[in-house]
Amino acid sequence: MFRNTQDWILQYQGKDALWIHDGDKRRPHALLASGNHSGGFFNSRLVIADEGLLKEAASDLLELFVQQGGDLSDVWHVVGPQTGATKLAELIAHRVKDLDEAPCYWASPEKRDEDGVKSMVFAHEDLVMLPGGTVLLCEDVLTTGGSVDLTVDAIIKAGGVVLPFILVLVNRSGLTEVNGKKIVALIDRPLPMWAPEECPLCKEGSEALRPKDNWAALNAVY
């Protein structure tokens, strides 16, 4: 292992990629992709940009995967949804190939929203490779598991077989599994999350903003 959980948290902090609301009502808070609000956010975009660090993350995740009962020889494909898990899926697949000395392919489906119906869509070349193959899931940050569920649906429709694990950089959900798939994470740290109508920060007058698009505003000095 390159790092333990606390050391990975320090890496996020060192890249200013972990934000916690300080209680100042003038400061905005996080509007998550699920529509929920939160007083904390892991911005994995700032970590993923460091490819050397992400390679170490991929290696540590696979070591944890094996420690928790996974078998590298079962992994034919690695799939992570765009865009957060695209590079992670590629690097995990390359690491599996190095360790197992066997081909391992990767894919990253695109999320679509058509008339309110969300889905994950694979590129045509991925649809050729997936049928009959066993697939290891990965994600950058797991919050509700919604993207994972959509990815699983897309893999099954393409004829792939999903292994009962999800490799994630950060598990902020408080869950240990998603629909029977064990969460293997570098960081397990639940963060507060509320439905918009129940958000205490909104009631104090704080504005909800998309974190990745408003990172400077969330971290501004008041």
The CATH topology is given as Rossmann fold
Distance between the amino and carboxyl termini: 39 Å
Estimated radius of gyration: 18 Å
Low-pLDDT ranges:
none
Regarding CATH, which class? Alpha Beta
Please count the beta strands (DSSP E, at least 2 residues each): 14
Element pattern in H and E: HEEEEHHEHEEEHEHEEEEHEH
The structural domain count equals 1
Assembly of the depicted chains: single chain
How confident overall, as mean pLDDT?
95
* Overall helicity: 25-40%
CATH architecture: 3-Layer(aba) Sandwich
Number of helices: 8
Strand order in the largest sheet: 6-5-9-10-12-11
Give the structural class. Answer: alpha/beta
Shape, principal axes of CA atoms = globular
Strand content: 25-35%
Main sheet: strands, sense, barrel: 6 strands, mixed
